[in-house]
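Hi everyone,

Forwarding the result from last night's run.
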Amino acid sequence: MGSSLKSLWVYLKVGCVAVLGLLLLIVLLANRGYKTDVWLLTQFKNVPTLWLMAVTAVVSVVAFWVLSRVRGLMAQVRRVRAEREEAARLARHSALARELSETERRIDQKLGRAVGGEAGEEKVER
């Protein structure tokens, strides 16, 4: 059952691609004799409409590619920044842990001396 659904899905995709190709061919044939005037920072007269559509398509694909690369670059920058902040947070945590360990060691030494000193005094009093 699963393979028949997969094959149906594949054939539906192939059909959609074929329909899109047919529509593209119809648009190209319908516009083959047309010419237009275009203003792109200067006036262009009698530009073939097919060339105008081709240039528009190429510019659109290139713009999409550039924008997707910029988006990927921004995601990488965010990841690097997050990793840097995480490393700084871990460094602060390690420094605080060392400081806490040192403070505990000093407190233990003081308590040991205080307990040891009191025990010595109690022995003297007895």
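The chain has two helices and two strands.

Cheers,
N.
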